[in-house]
Amino acid sequence: MSHSELASIFNKNEKKVDWHDKALWFVRHKRDLSVHEVKGWEALRNLGHGIKAHTLSNLDNYLIEFEANAIKNDIQVHWAADGDEHNRIVHNIIKESNGKKVVKSKSMLTEECHLNPFLEAHGIEVIDTDLGERIVQLAKEKPSHIVLPAIHKNKHEVDKLFQEHLGTKPCDGDPQYLTGEARKHLRQKFIQADVAITGVNFAIANTGGFVVCTNEGNADMGAQLAPVHIACMGVEKIIPKQEHLGVFLRLLARSATGQPITTYSSHFKKPRKGEKMHIVIVDNGRTEQLSRPDFRTSLHCIRCGACMNTCPIYRRSGGHSYDATIPGPIGSILSPGKDLKKYSSLPFASTLCGSCSDVCPVKIDIHSQLYKWRQIITKETPQPFVKAQTMKIMGQMFSKPSQFERVGKAVRWSLRNLPKSVINSKLNTWGKARDLPEGPKQSFDQWYEERKNNQKD
Amino acid sequence: MKVGLFIPCYINQLYPQVGKATLELLEKLNVKVSYPSGQTCCGQPMANSGYESESIGACNHFIDNFKDFDYIVTPSGSCAYHVKKHYDIIPQTEDVINVRNNVYELCDFILNILKIKDIGASFPYKVGVHKSCHGLRGLRLGSCSERVEASYSYIEELLQHTKGVELMPLQRSDECCGFGGTFAVVEEAISVKMGKDKIKDHLESGVEVITATDTSCLMHLEGLITRNHQPLKVLHIAEILNSNL
Fold first, then answer.
1. Which partner from A33, A178, A208, A327 sits 20 to 30 angstroms from A352, CA to CA?
2. Which domain holds residue B180?
3. All domains of chain A in start order, with CATH
4. Is the ipTM of this complex over 0.95?
5. Distance (Å) from the C-alpha of residue B14 to the closest C-alpha of chain A?
6. CB neighbours of A418 closer than 8 A, spacing ≥ 6?
7. Residues 171..230 of B with a Cβ closer than 8 Å to A: which?
8. pTM of the complete model
9. How confident is the model at residue A456 (pLDDT cuts 50, 70, 90)?
């Protein structure tokens, strides 16, 4: 289904839409308060943009440098061209260590590669340990937001879900009780885990180390307890130097939730004695996106989710309406690069208001890229006949003033004289909930001509 | 100073009063304005729908109409933005470059070229400003809530110097209204919801008249207001600045 169809379904429950919109606007507002406290916020954004642009222009060298340093630190480095290879690599590592139980902290990359169903099909238990992700995992859903995966669910829905799966008592959606129960449940899983999988927020070329940011400490719990740690990262997660963390850690948490810094910024550099640490570096379409000059800056993304929180469409349509791993504005410029046809409605799920570009901590010109994808989509994917013809006719009409005048006159006459039942018939989508203006007798052109003639007299 | 008046297609046909107010206002400010006949459209409706190539005829026609002016002034931030931002699809001749550089949204032109703040208008109403997105984040006609910058707003500055205007604050000062051109139809449900929320914000603030630099946003809001019989009026900023009530 297209974004607009899924959005219409979401909008059947207006109360839920209002709640979803308010919840995310609250986060956006918190972000505003927090960034306004930083002197030089805009300079910091510029710096973040610059470092990312530089890194992507020298990506090959930084990746090689990172690999060499990581190997020096006794980390095993693996390269995956696509999601399938990534999944096979992860599975092999688990198999080699006779692992059966895996705990995983938040990683949009493993979502993108569909790692969980792959491992589960091989008889491995995978538990998502981020609370929001655990909630959607229990509900057999996908995250609807990259930072707040279960933002589409309210506390009463979580209450019901936990009763069903974790055997909790009915608590009228008491968040403290529910969180406590989730914590007990997850502690058990942490203790039993054979392997911990984490994502990577930043991989540092000059040290070979990497940083994982969480608010719940679940990445640390997993990685510190399990004998094997597998960290999965997209190629674009590289930053050149350790000191650049000072830029990105400040940008990330403020943009994401309005916090000055994530509760845990965990630095990993080498495995503990006798234990193993692996890094899987994944391309999965990223270098192809890098090769598209108009869209390469989409790889600057540090996955803060600010563009989702600010997007008036996302807030009112829910993350699932995008039907993609990364929803919202940034997802709408990344996804068409993966499957143009499947995601062809996403770049149109925007008014091009530009709020996403202004909120982006690394200054990705998201709305401009949405516009550019639109141009490609109409050329390279099948378009409705009526739309294509209408655009052609409009294009011709606006090239010829006489035609424009004739059509304008007819439209004004119709709006003035036709009954409302005809104007707002089913064919007129605009008229479902909105009136059209009354057609004025005179156009501006006609008024101007008349005035000119009167002045001559 | 040769000033050409650019009246967007939908204002020409559906909201001629906005065109009249713009022309009268500029004349009041002693600007000699020419209105080149045979204007059509800047090409935005096709381009934003992904059919940039179908808009080339309109772009060329626009350049022909306006190439001889020092300034091109229009009561639409969105159309001005389109010319500035997206006219890179036609060859960048001297004429094209000049037109793109010299096209101005009306408030921007009055404040920053004419350097006039007080027009001598009066309008004794509670006014809510809708900061149309293309003007705000495209042309930077004001500061936006996302960026950390000194606060300013051209439209509000002119309204502050209008006698009797009481500017009403909004909960969300610069959220999009949901018009978005063909978005209004393609994503009807969200478009309508955004418009309804926007109107609610204005109503809760006690606004009597919503104004903006763009009649397109106002047409969308007015469509909802009329349908739902809400106690609000919409007026383009030119109509308020041209008032002497």
1. A33
2. 126-241
3. 38-284 (3.40.50.10420), 388-456 (no CATH)
4. yes
5. 6
6. none
7. 172, 174-176, 178-195, 197, 219-220, 222-224, 226-227
8. 0.97
9. confident
